[in-house]
Amino acid sequence: MPNFNIDSTKKNTFDAIVIGSGMSGGWAAKEFTEKGLKTLVLERGRNVTHIKDYPTTNLMPWEVKDANQVSYDVKKENPIAARCYNFKEDSQHFFTKDKEQPYIQEKPFDWIRGYQTGGKSLLWARQTQRLSDFDFEGPDRDGFAVDWPIRYKDLAPWYSYVEKFVGISGEYDGLETLPDGEFLKSMGLNATEQYFKEVVAKKYNNQRHVIYGRCAHITENKEIFMKQGRAMCQTRDLCRRGCPFGGYFSSNASTLPWAQKTGNLTMQHDAVVHSVIYDDEKEKATGVRVIDAKTKEMTEYYAPVIFVNASAFNSNMILLNSKSKRFPNGLGNDNGLLGKYIAFHNYRVSISAEYDGNLDKTTTGRRPTSGYVPRFRNIHKQETDFLRGYAAGFGASRQIIQDSEGLGEALKQNLVSPKYGNWRVGSHMMGETIPKEESTLSLDTEKTDQYGIPQLRINLDYDDNDEKMIADYVEQFTEMFEAAGFTNIKAHDIPDKAPGLDIHEMGGVRMGHDPKTSLLNKWNQLHACKNVYVTDGACMTSTSTQNPSLTYMALTARACDHAIKASKKGEA
Amino acid sequence: MKRRTAIRNLGLVTGGLFLLPSCNFSEERVPLVLSKLKITTEEEILLEAMIDTILPETDTPGGVSLKVQNFVWTMLDDCASPEQQASFLNGLRGFNASVKEKHGDNFVDMDKKERLATLQNLMDDETLNKDLSNFLHTTKHTAVWGYKNTEYYMTQLMPYKLIPGAFSYRTKTIDPNEKININA
């Protein structure tokens, strides 16, 4: 007589479990399956297969019913998601709707989520800048958070490893603040951006730089991309719809189909992870508890190694909810710091202006990236009354003015007689924020979601350092714009804009040397439960200014390599 | 050749026959299906007459043949708040009375010239009540938007490329004789 219990345990046992199929989970899936590990990827959302499930991708503008506006009803039902710049009629199906997962805002926070295969990798802004030692050494030098347990040299080979597979369009700028990577051809700065670059380099003796924003777009045909079934970026600039060419990197187009081809991948959708199972006797994690989003039934899955890649705040939630005799306050949380020291990127302010030079020039076509200004404040030493600094986006485009005055034939004539205006230039700030103990995530003791999981409480806000940084950004960019002869310079600070819309929330399960002051070691293993790894935004000790996805991917590949080597040695 | 001419003429004749009834028998119109707004055929005809005045048929298709009126209704139905919808409909329902009071005739009964002058007059009138003014300016604004979003405009007048191709983006020196394409 068969033992059903043993059979079902066997059926639900894998070599590795990865929670989440987004940017970092996709990489864990790829790395493990490639090395022969039978890997279960748990995705709480629905299945989105590359190309097949991009329903709007080939629509012409006039085929999008409401001219790409989000309807009144959808906006009303989703005030949070609808505040995201990328939430449009043609992309709204890739955003998690507000009612799916309520949370408590102790202070206003717009939590943008994408529960489906690939997660937010379908929706990201695709900027891929490496961190440097000026970032890794920041907390130690400036006395905040804790020291990163790694330095640039630890991650550099993994950045390269990831970049070669992802495909990064970039220019070799030779900057110590923003190390060069493995670059494909650049799509270029335009004439006015190039002009600004030269003005800034001259005015600040090459201490400030305007560069081409490195981005995850394929701009050269290479075998590695063909093997993934991805083609060159066709500069449609419709990335949010999902790309039928696989021109930009997403888990859907790249890592997940790659993992699938090995035959070692099991994808489980509608799989809401409740908690990680900790075995008090074995003194390690043995699996995860999963609630089926449709039937609400709970199933357990088992594996000797578990990667938590549920997105920064969800990874915190899962660990906080993973309570056992050994860890009554959440998995690995001996020091009570789990969920603390969260931070984000300050995107509150932008600046616009006009330029009346280069009037014989314009641009043609579309470009899915823009210029980038790496951090220039407090690089070698503390020089301002605030800590750290900011990077910035920068872009210029020629204005086309269309007169829509009049009625009848005169109006029709106006609508086919556009004229060139000045160049329009703009920049937005990407500020480093300081992770603080009072910036916290916690689980509510009463309210639960539809799966019975305690609701997340988010307590995060701007601080005095952020306000000073905003003022400095406006001052410095005004000076830079004035040096370039730009006019009509206007700063746009939106104090009501809550943190969160940067979609760069980080921390809560930070890396560090010491189990007393951090949750993860230098390999992204929980200090107190080494077969659990966290390699998404939750692991970040400090935020730097750079768009973080590339770093999550590099950390994930590095941690997978460590996990595989450790299991061969019989550790963990 | 003669045969072709004959066929072409036949086409013109039948085309004319097919077109003729739809012009005058308004009760045979298929009403526009909207999810929230309740509007009458007369209201549809009125908005259509306004669209025809704002963007008339000339040597290029006008707003009505490009169905811009449907765009205006759809946007109002899907994207406007209940307050904006109420204001728009209120404006629309007060429109004829204002036209009659100021110009002595129903808008739809006027000839094209009168319609244009009347609409221009009303739109320049700063003493209009808020709903009527909102109705007129929303209609114009949305009609222009809809027109620029039509397949015709985006393929024939200002061609848009869904797939520009790799490295479509570049700086170019302006040729003053070249027509500007806002969708290039």
From TrEMBL, chain A:
Pfam family, one: GMC_oxred_C
Alphabetical list of SUPFAM superfamilies matching this protein: FAD-linked reductases, C-terminal domain (SSF54373), FAD/NAD(P)-binding domain (SSF51905)
Domain annotation Glucose-methanol-choline oxidoreductase N-terminal: ranges: 233-322
Domain Glucose-methanol-choline oxidoreductase C-terminal, chain residue ranges per copy: 435-555
Highest taxon in the source lineage: Bacteria
Needed co-factor(s): FAD
Keywords attached to this entry: FAD, Flavoprotein, Oxidoreductase
Keyword Flavoprotein: yes
UniProt keyword Flavoprotein, yes or no: yes
InterPro entries associated with the record: FAD/NAD-bd_sf, GMC_OxRdtase_N, GMC_OxRtase_C, P2Ox-like
UniProt family annotation: Belongs to the GMC oxidoreductase family.
Protein name: GMC family oxidoreductase
Organism, scientific name: Galbibacter pacificus
UniProtKB/TrEMBL annotation, chain B:
Superkingdom in the source lineage: Bacteria
Annotated InterPro entries: Gluconate_2DH_su3
Protein name: Gluconate 2-dehydrogenase subunit 3 family protein
Organism: Galbibacter pacificus
